[in-house]
């Protein structure tokens, strides 16, 4: 498995985020901040999430991807696309109900390599907040997800609460 990274390219006013390698939770805060800035600057354009080069992707990043669809729908009513050429990844996307908020495609989305998105410094507290928000979002996607992630969310909430007590 290759180290995870996310590349960005603008192809004729279609913004493409290409995920490559092993996509784990430490990437999520940087991705979230980048997408927030992108959608503020280009609120009326289209977004494609290309997962065709993903080896693995964790639930935190799946929750962050779900957030992208929700934000785009709120801002311009558009439905983003996910490109995934791997059966296993497509099964994960469907099991998380992401096919309900994204158009799933199997063709490649990006001609160019793209530029790496900027990374931000991540504290343990920020990391836990992003992981918690992502799992809450996934719980909202379907009843099955709610059952899958209820205990995870509960434990993360407790950990954040304990962390804030220790700081006080």
List the strand order in the largest sheet.
Answer: 5-4-3-2-1-6
The CATH C-level name of the domain at 5-119 is Alpha Beta
Distance between the termini: 41 Å
Poorly predicted runs of 5 or more residues: none
Summed over residues and divided by their number, the pLDDT gives a mean of 90
- What's the number of helices? 5
Strand content: 15-25%
At the third CATH level, what is the topology name of the domain at 5-119?
Transcription Regulator spoIIAA
Helical proportion?
Answer: 40-55%
CATH H-level superfamily of the domain at 5-119: STAS domain
Principal-axis shape: globular
What would you say the CATH architecture of the domain at 5-119 is? 2-Layer Sandwich
Q: What is the number of E strands?
A: 6
H/E element sequence: EEHEHEHEEHH
| Radius of gyration from CA coordinates | 16 Å
Derived from helix and strand composition plus strand pairing, the structural class reads alpha/beta
Major sheet, described briefly?
A: 6 strands, mixed
């Amino acid at each position: 498995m290759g180290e995870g990274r996310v590349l960005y390219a603008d192809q004729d006013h279609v913004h493409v985020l290409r995920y490559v390698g092993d996509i784990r939770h430490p990437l999520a805060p940087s991705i979230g901040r980048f997408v927030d800035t992108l959608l503020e600057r280009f609120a009326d354009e289209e977004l494609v999430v290309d997962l065709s080069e993903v080896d693995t992707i964790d639930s935190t990043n799946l929750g962050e991807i779900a957030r992208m669809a929700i934000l785009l729908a709120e801002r311009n009513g558009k439905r983003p696309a996910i490109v995934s050429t791997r059966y296993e990844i497509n099964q994960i996307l469907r099991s998380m109900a992401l096919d309900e908020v994204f158009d799933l495609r199997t063709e490649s989305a990006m001609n160019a390599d793209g530029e790496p998105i900027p990374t931000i410094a991540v504290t343990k507290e920020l990391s836990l907040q992003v992981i918690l928000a992502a799992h809450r979002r996934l719980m909202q996607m379907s009843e099955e997800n709610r059952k899958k992630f209820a205990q995870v969310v509960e434990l993360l909430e407790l950990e954040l609460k304990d962390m804030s007590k220790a700081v006080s």
